[in-house]
Amino acid sequence: MTTNGTNTPLRIVVGSDNAGHAYKTALKEVLHKHAGVTNVLDVGVVDADDVTAYPHLAVDACKKIKAGEADRALLICGTGLGVAISANKVEGIRAVTAHDPYSVERSVLSNNAQVLCFGQRVIGLELAKKLVDEWVELRFDEKSSSAEKVAHISKYEEKFGEL
What family, per the record (predicted)? Predict the structure, then answer.
């Protein structure tokens, strides 16, 4: 994986529904140990018995990014799809579901996605740990050829507003 050479430490917000709680707990440990992470904020759920619906925690996490309280978010549900759809409803947020190294890399380097979503029922825990460890190292290069494409996404969002 490549970075653009700037590894400013990240503040990461994590969240899951009950279907992703076990992975969230394990992945928080990876983040806490990573030198590239200065803060890990957990927006829930608190345990596997908490039945709070995934849209609430996904939106809460992304509001932290929008408010400047976090740089990125890691969200987990059963498939990773519901949290990604919900996260993308917050203006300015680019969330992706990715379960392989190349997609995780491109989500940041090509798309400047701030939110990575996993499905606990889809990806193995050891691979998820590896991907999170690599994801923390990645930074979007504002001077890259992808920057103009990401700017177009933002322009569409400004034109049509929050959905």
Answer: Belongs to the LacAB/RpiB family.
Q: What is the DSSP letter of 132?
A: H
pLDDT in the model for residue 161 = 66
In the set 77, 84, 128, 136, the catalytic residue is 77
For 50-89, b where at least 16 C-beta lie within 10 A, e where not — what string?
A: eebebbebbbbbbbbbeeeebbbbbbbbbbbebbbebbbe
107-111: average pLDDT: 98
Question: Rounded to 5 degrees, what are φ and ψ at 108?
Answer: -90, -55
Domain ranges of the chain: 10-161
Residue 32 pLDDT > 50, yes or no? yes
Q: Specify the CATH number of the domain 10-161.
A: 3.40.1400.10
